[in-house]
Write a structure and sequence with these properties.
This protein has about 250 residues and is of the alpha+beta class. It has one domain. Helices cover about 45% and strands about 10% of the residues. It is built from nine helices and six strands, in the order ααααααααβαβββββ. A four-stranded mixed beta sheet has the order 1-4-3-2. The chain has a two-stranded antiparallel ribbon with strand order 5-6.
Length: about 250
C-alpha cells in the first residue's frame, strides 16, 4: 500500500513548474478579501471537505495563509501525533488489524486539527484509508499530501540561503526531504530566518551537486514564547513504517 502512495508522489513531484515564493502582503490581501477565490474560510472548507479540484495556487494560499490563523501554534506539542506515531511503530503493514487502523484514523484526525498540512499526518491518513478500502478518502488525502509538498518545493529551490524553501513547521522540512528520497543530517541555523539541513551524503540532482537544503522558518518564531527551546524528537519516514530519531 505504502509503495502505491510513493509512486503517486514520484509521478506528481516533477510536474512543479515556476516557483512561487510566498509574499506576505499578497497572502494577506488574498485570504482576507471575501471576494477573492482564496478567501481563507471558504478555501479551508474546500480543503477539509476533500475537494479534488484545488489548484496549486489554492494550496499556496492555504498553506502560507494558515500562518495567519488562530489555530497556527507551531511551537505547541501535538500529543495526538505522538500517539499516532507510536501506533504506527507497532503495526504490521502486511497484516490488516482493523481495530488498530481505526485507532490510527482517530489519532490522525485529531492530530490534523493542530497541524492540518503535515505531510506526516496526510501520509498516514492516505495509508490508513487505503488499508481500510476507502479508496475515495485515500484519493482525497493523497491529493492534499501532494499539493502540500508541491507548495513547499515550489517556494524555493533550497540551494542557497537566498532561495530557501518556506515551511510552517520544522517537521515539514524533513518530511519533504524524505518524500524526495533525501537522507537528512543534523540541521543547523545559518541566519535569523533560515536553517540548513545537510544530506548524509552529497547528491547530484538535475546536474547540480547538492550538499543539503535551506529552509526558511521565520513564520514559526513570529509568536515565539519567551524562553522557548525547540527540541525535535522524531518525524515520519515516507519510505518505511518506522519513526526516525533525530536531534
Amino acid at each position: 500500500m505504502m509503495k502505491r502512495i510513493l509512486l503517486l508522489l514520484a509521478l506528481l513531484l516533477p510536474l512543479i513548474g515556476v516557483g512561487k515564493t510566498p509574499v506576505e502582503q499578497d497572502i494577506l490581501d488574498r485570504i482576507t478579501d471575501q471576494r477573492s477565490p482564496y478567501y481563507y474560510l471558504k478555501l479551508m472548507m474546500r480543503y477539509v471537505n476533500g475537494a479534488l479540484d484545488l489548484t496549486d495556487d489554492d494550496y499556496h494560499y492555504l498553506y502560507y495563509g494558515y500562518a495567519y490563523q488562530e489555530g497556527y501554534k507551531p511551537l505547541e506539542a501535538n500529543p495526538d501525533m505522538e500517539e499516532m506515531l507510536a501506533l504506527m511503530k507497532g503495526m504490521n503493514p502486511d497484516k490488516v488489524d482493523h481495530a488498530l487502523l481505526e485507532q490510527l484514523l482517530m489519532r490522525a484526525n485529531a492530530a490534523r486539527m493542530r497541524d492540518p498540512f503535515s505531510p506526516t499526518i496526510l501520509n498516514v491518513l492516505t495509508f490508513v484509508h487505503q488499508m481500510l478500502g476507502n479508496d475515495g478518502e485515500a484519493q482525497r488525502w493523497s491529493a492534499h499530501l501532494n499539493g502540500v509538498i508541491r507548495t513547499i518545493l515550489s517556494s524555493g529551490d533550497g540551494l542557497t540561503i537566498k532561495s530557501p524553501r518556506h515551511i510552517l513547521m520544522f517537521d515539514h522540512a524533513l518530511d519533504v526531504m524524505a518524500a524526495e528520497g533525501l537522507a537528512p543530517g543534523d540541521a543547523r541555523v545559518v541566519s535569523r530566518t533560515v536553517e540548513f539541513v545537510p544530506l548524509v551524503s552529497a547528491q547530484v540532482i538535475e546536474g547540480k551537486k547538492r550538499k543539503g537544503v535551506y529552509f526558511n522558518f521565520e513564520r514559526i518564531y513570529r509568536n515565539k514564547p519567551e524562553g522557548y527551546t525547540y527540541k525535535r524528537e522524531r518525524t515520519w519516514q515516507f519510505n518505511n513504517l518506522k519513526p526516525r530519531e533525530y536531534k
